[in-house]
Amino acid sequence: LLAFRRARATVQPLRSANHRPLRYKGTAPYQYDPADRKTFFGRDREIRSLFSLVLAERLVVVFGKSGTGKSSLLNAGLVGPLFERGYLPMTIRLSDYAQGPVAALLDGVRTAVRAAGAEIVGAEGHDVPGFFQSAEFWSRDDDLLKPVLILDKFEELFTLHGPAPRREFISQLAELVRGRTQRRQPLAAADGVAAPDTSASQ
Hints:
By secondary structure, the chain is α/β, with parallel strands linked by helices.
């Protein structure tokens, strides 16, 4: 359906300096690409549990120590099943200090939608709830997609941004998750955030 799902690639195994296949890629997290999805394994139970939570809850927080594979689980484990179920997962980081977290999230959404080969229709708001209240997300095949926000490295909200922009972002995110103002509640998953689509209850 989406460009990601149409992609085909010959996946070459990772190899060490002596050309032996490597089971692990190192400290870099796995991503949603053919090579990483091919070599990411052994966490099927966690993927199923996280996927079920994302479909059932408005907000899911994946919490753990640094280096335990949270980003890999989200990107290489969760994203694929969401695409297959008609969702539009968008992995976003809030790492632009100068831009601020609200603008970084909205720019990240637009970038992720373009990368997925999808299109945003509407999106008139300049804050997070207003944006999703007016936005619709369509695939190239004219299917209406359900957005899922995946806020990777969510701790960057606290380590990179000051108190005022942080409070404003949390306020807007809370309003989004509560779903009081928008027609189509996005799933939000924070390292992750996920809140199920409520368009059926309009």
